[in-house]
Amino acid sequence: MARFPYGASAGVMAGLALASGAYLAARRGQQSRSDLRLWTFAKPHGDAYLKMLPDFLRRHPGVSVDIQIVAGEAVTSRLQAAFWSNLDVPDLAEVEISWAGSFFRGRLESIGFRDLTERVRRTGLWERVVQTRFAPYTTRGRIFGIPHDVHPVMLAYRRDLVEKLGIDVDALRTWDEFVEVGRRVTIPGKRFMMELPPEGLSVLEAMLFQRDGGYFDAQGNCTLDNEIAIETMRYYAPLAAGKGRIGNDLGGGQIFTRALEDGYYLFMIVPDWRTKTIEQDVPKVGGRMALAPLPAFTPGGRRTSTWGGTMIGVTKRCADPDLAWELMMHFYFNKEALAEQFRNTNILPPARDLWDHPAYDEPRPFWSNQPLGRLFANLAPQTPPQYTSPYIGLAKAKLSEALIACVRYYDRYGARGFDGFVRQQMARAAAEVRRQMRRNPYLHENA
Amino acid sequence: MKTPDALTHETTARPATRRRRPPRRDKLAPYLFVAPFLILFLVFGAYPLLKSVVLAFYITSGPRDQVFVGLENFRFLLTDPDFWKAVRNTVVYTLWSLALQIPLALGLAILLNSRWVRGREFFRLAFFSPNLVGQVFVGVLFSVLFVPQYGLVNRFLHATVGAPLDTRWLSEPSLIMPALVLTSLWMYVGMHMVYFLAGLQTVERELYEAAQLDGAGNWGQFWHVTLPGIRHVLIFVVIISTIGSFQLFELPWVMLGRSPGPDGAGLTIVMYLYINGYVSGDLGYASAVGWTLALGLLVVSLLQLRLSGALRS
């Protein structure tokens, strides 16, 4: 060793560098051995796919599939970096609905996912799936993702408390009726009619979608200042501010658990996936919860909305897109397996023909023996579209600013001058989004 | 074992060998030793820096789609209300952090430098220990402490001063900045305290004795002996705190649920850069933001050095 040029230290360093380099090179070889690699951000999805995988592998001998669970937001940033560097790109990836738009910013040919439009039409998927669910994963008329879910929305409520207060839930057919009862039973600081954030967007968004509004239209134009958006804000802010408020929000996780146990909220808006979260996080209220359709904005109007979602896409780096498509179909449209998945996650699959499985009619003790699957499935066809854009993050931020401004205004001045103020705030929000969009030279290419 | 004589002999004999031309291998040696760092620096340091200067003049969508726009990114930046909101938030955070962290850290350092305090080593470790955990951990911890109704902060304030239990520290825009400043206080005071302690230990005892003889009280000693004695440490701490505060990102990003928070009340310049570069995908615009921040920091640091007289000394 002493004879090594420049002495033993340099020899040791060179040896370490060579050994670590060789180790990394060997690991890289190991990683790329699978025929298909899928990234998902949701552990329940990953667990379900692992259960469904052996059946797929039996039908495709010699094929290997690697399912990787990449935590939360990391899947999006890692995927974006992988697309940009063209390194370590998986064959398939699941993306959360609010992040999907960020992958569609550049030219169509630069998008990292494959265009699935023709396949969706050719295979009849367009007819099978609730069509509005393709909207978030479509840009400039081309579909880049298959929806994992429908995520219709219902009202969940503390049945025991609501009955005690003499509220007839079946009679709450419109939001006006709901608000009227809410103003009667709300005791600020102690009990609120519903979970309704004065600063957060979850319920405002659900109301906006319910009325066929949203951040963008099907062509990707910002719609934050259209009449629907203005009307929705005008309706929402007084529910979260001022003397007549009926809602509040303390936060998620353990705080939500305590609040629900304590009866701080009577009602809350829940998509199918959130019912499972409530079952797991607030077991104490099991058997005392129930579900009801959302009140409509007008008599006979839509009784649901939507909240959240996931898409799966095949990347352009995928060497065998046909095999990747087959895997997607197996995971997303396998009736028996999805019924089992529904029992574990409460998530309704996106294709209508899957909903006739008996699993969706099973009574759920937690939800006062209501057939949770059937309740959501009955509402699912009415699920409104949720159009997206690469600027969805900005649009959400601007809507949030407008909401806070409106809530504060209403808190301070009440209804005086409120309509004009809302209009002004929404116009400002939309103008900001459009200003940013105008900078993007690619957005209206191939439109 | 060599005798002193033998060592002297070897030392004096060396000039004779120096006259020989060093072998080619020895000439190469320094370059080879420096090469790993240099290669890594050029690839991962210098090249990205230069590339980001070029990128700042393009609108991009990822690294492949680029359109040259000249100074448009900078023009847009200077007229973007969100950028100015980020600047305002960052400056407010920096000012509050400096105003609270520095006196507190200095006070603690003076206290723990005193011979009369028992268990000084324990307290030094205790105050420094928040630095041993990362910002992400601290962010998660404090987001739990700040929750309304059931959080420890609200419970404490309710019990002591009767503050309402449902104070929404992380969702009421006007409370977000105080929550961030309080969190950073917990995190950084200990680190600054260590710097000040090191500075205090270099101030000579004789100076205090002389000041006492001249009739200086505690305040006089602090003002005329301690402060001038640790002036360079103070300038250093102020500058690194300013730079660190301007680079604030992880703490609000974690505490506000990976967003700038309601009304953008937690939006900082680096968060603005991140959102534009990695969420919206415009690396060109993000580069423009980055270079504007770098220039701003340079100006602020030079200003601080000038005001403190450090440039003259």
What separation lies between the terminal Cα atoms of chain A? 67 Å
Q: What would you call the structural class of chain A?
A: alpha/beta
What's the overall average pLDDT of chain A, rounded?
91
List the domain count of chain B as a whole number.
Answer: 2
Strand order of the largest sheet of chain B: 1-2
Strand order of the largest sheet of chain A: 2-1-3-12-6
What's the Cα radius of gyration of chain A?
25 Å
What's the level 1 CATH class of one domain in chain A?
A: Alpha Beta
At the first level of CATH, the class of the largest domain in chain B is: Mainly Alpha
- State the end-to-end CA separation of chain B: 49 Å
The beta-strand count of chain B equals 2
Radius of gyration of chain B: 27 Å
> What is the name of the CATH architecture of one domain in chain A?
3-Layer(aba) Sandwich
**Helical fraction of chain A:** 40-55%
Major β-sheet annotation of chain A: 5 strands, mixed
Largest interface: A-B, 42 and 39 residues
In short:
Chain A has 447 residues and is an alpha/beta fold. Chain A has helices at residues 7-31, 43-59, 74-85, 97-100, 117-122, 125-128, 159-164, 175-185, 202-210, 227-240, 253-262, 272-281, 321-333, 335-345, 372-379, 392-413, 418-438; strands at residues 36-40, 65-69, 92-96, 138-139, 142-143, 146-147, 153-158, 192-195, 247-248, 265-271, 289-293, 310-314.
Please describe what this structure looks like.
- The complex is a heterodimer of chains A (447) and B (313).
- Chain A has 447 residues and is α/β, with parallel strands linked by helices.
- Chain A has a domain at 33-150 and 308-366: 3-Layer(aba) Sandwich (D-Maltodextrin-Binding Protein, domain 2), CATH 3.40.190.
- In chain A, 45% of the residues lie in helices and 11% in strands.
- Chain A is built from 17 helices and twelve strands.
- Chain A has helices spanning 7-31, 43-59, 74-85, 97-100, 117-122, 125-128, 159-164, 175-185, 202-210, 227-240, 253-262, 272-281, 321-333, 335-345, 372-379, 392-413, 418-438; strands spanning 36-40, 65-69, 92-96, 138-139, 142-143, 146-147, 153-158, 192-195, 247-248, 265-271, 289-293, 310-314.
- In chain A, the strands form three sheets. Chain A has a five-stranded mixed β-sheet with strand order 2-1-3-12-6, sandwiched between helices.
- In chain A, β1 (36-40), α2 and β2 form a beta-alpha-beta unit.
- In chain A, α10 (227-240) crosses α16 (392-413).
- The longest helix of chain A is centred in the first third of the chain and has 25 residues, at 7-31.
- Chain A is globular.
- The termini of chain A are far apart.
- The model of chain A has no long low-confidence stretch (mean pLDDT 91).
- Chain B is mainly α and 313 residues long.
- Chain B has two domains: 1-46, no CATH class; 74-308, MetI-like fold.
- In chain B, 72% of the residues lie in helices and 3% in strands.
- Chain B has helices spanning 4-18, 24-55, 72-79, 81-113, 120-128, 135-145, 152-161, 173-200, 205-213, 218-229, 231-246, 250-255, 269-279, 283-308; strands spanning 58-61, 65-68.
- In chain B, α8 (173-200) packs antiparallel against α11 (231-246).
- The longest helix of chain B has 33 residues, at 81-113.
- Chain B starts with a helix and ends in a 5-residue tail after the last helix.
- The chains are: A alpha/beta (447), B mainly alpha (313).
- Chains A and B meet through α3, α11 and α16 of A and α2 and α13 of B.
